[in-house]
From TrEMBL:
<keyword id="KW-1015">Disulfide bond</keyword>
<dbReference type="InterPro" id="IPR009003">
    <property type="entry name" value="Peptidase_S1_PA"/>
</dbReference>
<protein>
    <recommendedName>
        <fullName>Peptidase S1 domain-containing protein</fullName>
    </recommendedName>
</protein>
<dbReference type="InterPro" id="IPR043504">
    <property type="entry name" value="Peptidase_S1_PA_chymotrypsin"/>
</dbReference>
<dbReference type="GO" id="GO:0004252">
    <property type="term" value="F:serine-type endopeptidase activity"/>
</dbReference>
<dbReference type="Pfam" id="PF00089">
    <property type="entry name" value="Trypsin"/>
</dbReference>
<dbReference type="InterPro" id="IPR033116">
    <property type="entry name" value="TRYPSIN_SER"/>
</dbReference>
<keyword id="KW-0645">Protease</keyword>
<dbReference type="InterPro" id="IPR001254">
    <property type="entry name" value="Trypsin_dom"/>
</dbReference>
<dbReference type="GO" id="GO:0030141">
    <property type="term" value="C:secretory granule"/>
</dbReference>
<comment type="similarity">
    <text>Belongs to the peptidase S1 family. Snake venom subfamily.</text>
</comment>
<keyword id="KW-0378">Hydrolase</keyword>
<dbReference type="InterPro" id="IPR001314">
    <property type="entry name" value="Peptidase_S1A"/>
</dbReference>
<feature type="domain" description="Peptidase S1">
    <location>
        <begin position="1"/>
        <end position="198"/>
    </location>
</feature>
<dbReference type="GO" id="GO:0006508">
    <property type="term" value="P:proteolysis"/>
</dbReference>
<keyword id="KW-0720">Serine protease</keyword>
Amino acid sequence: MALGSGSDVVLRIRSCRYVVHLGAHSLGRQDGCEQTRTATKSFPHPDFNNSLPNKDHRNDIMLVKMVTPAHLTWAVRPLTVSPRCVPAGANCLISGWGTMSSPQLHLPHTLRCANVTIIKHRECEDAYPGNITDTMVCASVRKEGKDSCQGDSGGPLVCNGSLQGIISWGQDPCAVSKKPGVYTKVCKYVDWIQKTMENN
């Protein structure tokens, strides 16, 4: 997910530190539209707690500055980031290369997508008592079998063309009824994103 006018900043959850691949659809073959960038700096949220045994998922977000900007094409486009949070009931799209089965790992060769629906904050709190904050949003499919899963972390939750969430955590095994996927709520971090980009 490229952000900014120069398209040289990528938004990821804090736990991911990889070479940035843009425009990729298949992991097994090149389609000619892929771009690879390396990161020069990373900017984790200052309030993220990665120390064990107290690790939690609050502020699970990080900006990564790439050495060279992305080249915008039909396959590589920036997403908008809005301070306006989407309401419960909004239909959204998730994507990633995470496992297609759980708890057994079965990784795909091509990018997978699924339609999910934002659920009420109270319903999310009921699913994970004591673990949900106002900087998290939950989304699910009422029918079992579709969810973000291991390997999808850092992927986008896109609603109406806007980046509204970053895949963060959830139930293991995945895609269990009444255990939605949990996402970092990007609309709560817009000021931090803008200030971090301006200062770096």
